[in-house]
Structures are given as structure tokens and as C-alpha cells.
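Dear H.,

Thanks for agreeing to be a second pair of eyes. The structure we're designing against is below in C-alpha cell form, covering all 293 positions.
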């Protein structure tokens, strides 16, 4: 495949077919939590993180069969974080991907449990990843834990909550988004490289591509919040401005933010070429950048 949108559909089907096996419909006493888990897992979205995992596997000459469970794991962690982010105690949002959020559909208690279950189950799924060097599985589990826990995504969420009571400076805003948004994107590219037993310099290159992609995604997300619509954004637009939340737009202004996004796009595409190039990954970077135009 040499077309991004065909590859997106391929990745979505592959992951969702696997989800049907990993998170089946359940008719025992825990059936309600399985319904809530599946509701959020199958709520839509382009599956950017699993897509990145497959593209990284292509770069690493690793069969997708080997990392399908990681692709599902990373989407389960991402989905749990969205469920919890939307709760009244966090971002308090009614819409996610154009649909009622989990707590609106199932109630707060079941939404919390669905998030807990997705996070916990994700590590069982991760343990099934097939590595060229089996000794690297422990390193993979450690990397996912670092990227998703209090040294990664959760650290970004904590800093984001704290920033609601004051104006974060440039350094703190960068920390928030490097961790809250960027770490799972970074992880999506790094884990296949570990599973494929790649050399350290190539892993470091993929890590930097991931960090840049995460930041690019966040800046364009902030831009969409000021001029996007529900269908394009998948959540309530204009919410950041109404809540007086510090974003790249409020800190740097729209013009500078667009310049930063362009520079990140170009830098990231150069890094992709440095590791031998990948047409679909370059198209994805363009797509993330252009979604605000």
C-alpha cells in the first residue's frame, strides 16, 4: 500500500478485528464493564497510534503479526485515558469522537471501571508481543509503563490539571504536551523497533520522530479548537477558549503556532528520510499538519 487512507482503513480493520477477540462481548456479572469498554474502543477515530506502530514495523522489517497485540495495547491505554479525561472531575466533556462520552452513556462509576479495566487488560495483551530477541520483552513492558504512567502521560495530565489554576510558561506547556499527548505517540514508534531488535541510533531516531509528531498533533489540535467543527474535531470545539485554558494559541498566538507546526512538519519529514524514508509516514505527517486548514 502506498496510499495513507488505504493504510488507515487496513490498520483500523486489523486492530478492530483483534479487539473483537481480545475484548469479547460478555454475559456474566461483569457484562456491563465489557459493554462500556467496547463502546469506547469501537467509538471511531483513525487509530493513529496503532497506525504508527504498523508503520514503524514496516521500517523495522517486522511482520505486523508480531506487533498486533502491542498496537491493540497502545490503543487500549489511549482509550482508557480518554474515558477518564472526559469525566466531570477532569475535562468534563459530553462528546468524544462525535458521540456521548462514556460517563454520559454508562454513568461515572462504570466509566471509571471501564478505564481501569482497559488499562489493566492492556498489559496482559502486551505480554503477548512477539520479539526477535525475547529478552527485549521486559524492556518493552518497561517502556510502555514509563510512557503511560507517572513519568509519562499521567505526569502530563497532572501538570495540565495544575495549570488550570495559573498560567503555565513555555517550558511547562511543552512538558504537558510532551507527556500528555506525545509519550504514547513516541511509544507507538519505539516499541516495534525494540521488538525488531533495531540498533540504538535508529530507535533514538524513531523516538524523536514520535516526539515531534506528538507536538505537531497537539498544536494542530489547539488550532482546530478555535476554528474546527464537531465532525472534524470529534469533541466540543471552542472549549479551551471558554475555560481560559492555556494552549499554544493563547501562549504564542495563532500565526506563531502555525509557523511552529510547519517547522515541526518539515523537520519530522527530514528525520523520516534519514532512516530510509517511508512514504505513508510522510503522508501521515502532512495529514496531521493539514487537518487545521
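And this is the sequence the design step returned. I haven't edited it by hand at all.
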Amino acid at each position: 500500500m502506498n496510499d495513507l487512507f488505504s493504510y488507515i482503513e487496513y490498520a483500523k480493520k486489523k486492530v478492530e478485528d483483534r479487539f473483537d477477540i481480545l475484548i469479547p462481548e460478555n454475559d456474566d456479572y461483569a457484562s456491563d464493564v465489557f459493554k462500556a469498554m467496547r463502546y469506547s474502543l469501537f467509538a471511531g477515530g483513525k487509530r493513529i497510534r496503532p497506525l504508527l506502530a504498523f508503520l514503524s514495523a514496516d521500517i523495522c522489517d517486522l511482520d505486523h503479526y508480531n506487533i498486533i497485540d502491542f498496537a491493540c495495547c497502545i490503543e487500549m491505554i489511549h482509550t482508557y485515558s480518554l474515558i477518564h479525561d472526559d469525566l466531570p472531575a477532569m475535562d468534563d466533556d459530553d462528546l468524544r469522537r462525535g458521540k456521548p462520552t462514556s460517563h454520559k452513556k454508562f454513568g461515572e462509576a462504570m466509566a471509571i471501571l471501564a478505564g481501569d479495566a482497559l488499562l489493566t487488560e492492556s498489559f496482559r495483551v502486551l505480554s503477548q508481543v512477539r520479539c526477535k530477541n525475547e529478552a527485549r520483552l521486559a524492556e518493552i513492558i518497561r517502556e510502555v509503563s514509563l510512557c503511560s504512567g507517572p513519568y509519562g502521560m499521567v505526569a502530563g495530565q497532572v501538570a495540565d490539571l495544575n495549570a488550570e489554576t495559573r498560567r503555565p510558561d513555555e517550558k511547562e506547556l511543552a512538558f504537558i504536551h510532551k507527556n500528555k499527548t506525545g509519550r504514547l505517540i513516541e511509544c507507538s514508534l519505539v516499541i516495534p523497533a525494540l521488538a525488531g531488535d533495531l540498533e540504538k541510533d535508529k530507535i533514538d531516531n524513531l523516538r524523536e520522530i514520535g516526539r515531534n509528531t506528538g507536538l505537531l498533533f497537539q498544536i494542530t489540535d489547539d488550532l482546530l479548537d478555535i476554528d474546527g467543527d464537531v465532525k472534524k474535531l470529534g469533541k466540543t470545539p471552542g472549549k479551551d477558549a471558554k475555560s481560559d485554558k492555556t494552549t499554544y494559541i493563547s501562549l504564542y498566538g495563532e500565526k506563531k503556532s502555525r509557523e511552529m507546526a510547519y517547522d515541526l512538519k518539515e523537520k519530522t519529514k527530514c528525520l523520516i528520510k534519514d532512516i530510509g524514508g517511508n512514504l505513508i509516514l510522510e503522508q501521515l505527517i502532512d495529514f496531521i499538519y493539514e487537518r487545521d486548514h
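Two observations from my side: The chain has one domain: 4-286. The first helix runs from residue 4 to 22.

Warmly,
E.
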